[in-house]
């Protein structure tokens, strides 16, 4: 279910929506966790807790659990900041984060390449941090997680090289060295200091 057309509405600001995207195995969750720790105490920066149509799993992202009817209702009533579907699941960035952006704050969210244009249309400032790694590194990381079959990993890797096209404010961060280096690049991209 697509969200309502945002192209003709005034853009939301003056704060920023920062979407962290990239292929599975690139290390998005690791980098977001390290960035959150580094920015602890910054009252004007909020890390979005997503709602997903999946049961909570201790080995996965901390999220609110939604039923499919709840997801469909939120989307159809435009009660989300952003929403999308991928891998048979529905994902929601809750609407409460729009209030933070309206107040001039920065919201950092684990996003999807599917919503980048929608975010650019909706927010005055939408920044995309594309976290990447070479395919052999992605394969090694996905295999180490032990959550997917070899065929599932191969399917994910076929999508790994999908670079978003014509996306404004996109910053590419290759995550192959120490976590601290990638987090420093994220901080620079967002013009943030400790």
TrEMBL record:
Swiss-Prot/TrEMBL keywords: ATP-binding, Kinase, Nucleotide-binding, Transferase
Pathway participation: Metabolic intermediate biosynthesis; 5-phospho-alpha-D-ribose 1-diphosphate biosynthesis; 5-phospho-alpha-D-ribose 1-diphosphate from D-ribose 5-phosphate (route II): step 3/3
EC numbers, comma separated: 2.7.4.23
GO cellular component terms listed in the entry, alphabetical order: cytosol
Positions bound to ATP: 22-29
Swiss-Prot/TrEMBL catalytic activity: alpha-D-ribose 1,5-bisphosphate + ATP = 5-phospho-alpha-D-ribose 1-diphosphate + ADP
Domain Guanylate kinase/L-type calcium channel beta subunit: 14-194
SUPFAM superfamilies assigned to the protein according to its UniProt record, in alphabetical order: P-loop containing nucleoside triphosphate hydrolases
GO biological-process terms attached to the record: 5-phosphoribose 1-diphosphate biosynthetic process; organic phosphonate metabolic process
Keyword Membrane listed: no
InterPro entries: GK/Ca_channel_bsu (IPR008145), P-loop_NTPase (IPR027417), PhnN (IPR012699)
Entry's Gene Ontology molecular function annotations: ATP binding; ribose 1,5-bisphosphate phosphokinase activity
Family as reported in the entry's similarity comment: Belongs to the ribose 1,5-bisphosphokinase family.
Function: Catalyzes the phosphorylation of ribose 1,5-bisphosphate to 5-phospho-D-ribosyl alpha-1-diphosphate (PRPP).
Name of the protein in question: Ribose 1,5-bisphosphate phosphokinase PhnN
Organism for this UniProt entry: Roseibium album
Lineage: Bacteria, Pseudomonadati, Pseudomonadota, Alphaproteobacteria, Hyphomicrobiales
């Amino acid at each position: 279910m697509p969200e309502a057309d945002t192209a003709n509405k005034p853009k939301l600001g003056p704060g920023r929506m920062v979407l962290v995207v990239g292929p599975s195995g690139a290390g998005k969750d690791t980098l977001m966790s390290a960035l959150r720790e580094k920015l602890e105490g910054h009252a004007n920066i909020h890390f979005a807790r997503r709602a997903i149509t999946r049961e909570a799993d201790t080995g996965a992202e901390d999220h609110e659990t939604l039923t499919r009817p709840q997801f469909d209702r939120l989307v159809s009533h435009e009660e989300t900041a952003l929403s999308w579907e991928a891998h048979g699941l529905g994902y929601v960035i809750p609407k409460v984060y729009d209030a933070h952006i309206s107040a001039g704050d920065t919201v950092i969210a684990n996003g999807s390449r599917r919503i980048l244009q929608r975010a650019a249309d909706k927010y005055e400032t939408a920044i995309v941090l594309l976290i990447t790694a070479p395919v052999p590194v992605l394969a090694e990381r996905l295999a180490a997680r032990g959550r997917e079959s070899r065929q599932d990993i191969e399917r994910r890797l076929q999508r790994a090289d999908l670079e978003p096209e014509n996306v404004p404010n996109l910053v590419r961060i290759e995550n192959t060295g120490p976590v601290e280096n990638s987090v420093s690049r994220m901080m620079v991209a967002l013009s943030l200091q400790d």
